[in-house]
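Hi V.,

You were right to ask for the full record rather than a summary. Here it is.
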Amino acid sequence: MQGLNGTPFQPEMFQLTGIPGMHTGQAWVVLVFCILCLVSILGNLSILALVVREPALHQPMYYFLSMLSLNDLGVSFSTLPTVLATFCFNYRRVGFDACLVQMFFIHTFSFMESGILLAMSFDRFVAICDPLRYAAVLTNSRILTTGLGILTKSFTTLFPFPFLVKRLPFCKGNVLHHSYCLHPDLMKVACGDTRVNNIYGLFVVIFTYGVDSVFILLSYALILRAVMAIASQEQRLKALNTCMSHICAVLAFYVPIIAVSMIHRFWKNAPSVVHVMMSNVYLFVPPMLNPIIYSVKTKEIRKGILKLFHKS
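Predicted structure:
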């Protein structure tokens, strides 16, 4: 896209894209997205309400779960406006600055989720490997400090992104490949020298997803070693069962990320619908699955939800 003098410039609006090849089935697409968003929002709000209302859930594990639910709500509300506008009202335009704001919040909440999952793995490590010091190590002040640290880390590492994008001209059109704004998507339509954006983006991914995933694996290696040292098989299974919800949440978050990376790296000629669908899975499925996983696998959460429905 070029200005009157032939020089590239920044567009006032970006054109968002739905799911390629599914124009005839838009009603089904709208239904699926509405169900995903509704389950995600109601599920995570229910988790937050339970932890606040039930004194039995005022424990470190459930405080971290509240952080995860709050973060998942942030992901849902960051993507929801443009997704609903695209699929429900066929309004596919978003302002340049609004796009940068949405991009910042989507990536910030995504990186925060990785940090929260790491904190939850440390919680499980202390609970199994050093249970006598669990309450002394994970005090309320340390949990609050951990949450603020995760927020600060994500905010500061992502803060330069909007400014790095804003300095670039856009000469390859203004059509994005999703119904929301992502940094890699904006780089596809930007021109000029994008090396700083790409290098810094790679650094942020390694510094967050890479480091967090390594420490999560290390935590579970130490947990597994401690569990194998338990003499009773029943106690070993009981100890591992306390980690199952978190393991499922980690898989729900990291498997789509790995799948998206593998497709972009090894299947570059894949149909565009594959890339779009995997990106949607990466953003929409974990916030929906997390409350379901913890409701099914965690007895205290399940009992609280049943009590809530029973009162209703």
